[in-house]
Amino acid sequence: MSVYGVSSSQTASYNSVSDTTVKKDAKKQPEAASSEQDKGVVYEPSKATESKKDSSVKDYSSIIKQMKGELNTKNQQLQNLVDQLLSKQANKYTSFSQLFNDVKNGKISVDPSVVAQAQKDIADDGYWGVEQTSERMFSMAKALSGGDPAQADKMIAAIKKGFDQAAKAWGGELPDICQKTVDAATKKLEDWRKSLSASSDEAASEE
Predict the structure, then answer these.
(1) Could you give phi then psi for residue 147, rounded to 5 degrees?
(2) Would the pTM of this model clear 0.85, i.e. be above it?
């Protein structure tokens, strides 16, 4: 065999190996590039996730702010209701009392049925009496609290503020019947809070 033949054979063999190596390397490069791209894809969503977390925190804060605003609105509604109820109750009470005095002193003549109805209206169980008026306050407070006994103290505070508003509008102290009405409504709320708390404790102990 000639030297030229050996050299040619070696050269061909070398070129074949080189081509194969280059081809293998060429195949590996896209994989490496693909690996780098994959890393980039994984990295981007992590930023998006952090962004979503920040957004959720902001939304949560706005919800809390909205809830506080709604609670303040409900408290104001209850205060206004108590103010109106006590003002009307006081007017009825004083007008009926004056009516009774005028009838008693012979200043006016009124049908006995009118006097009987007036007495019934401001009696303890009458429409403008302590029981029914305080029950209307209590029912309104429960409705505004959403049935949550934890809100009872806030509802009681709102009722007392309503009482103060009514007294201020009245120009002085309200009749005793108004104070008794507020006391009765407050007691109803306290009893309601205690009864529901007791029920929750019993349910927890059974579990």
Answers:
(1) 75, 15
(2) no
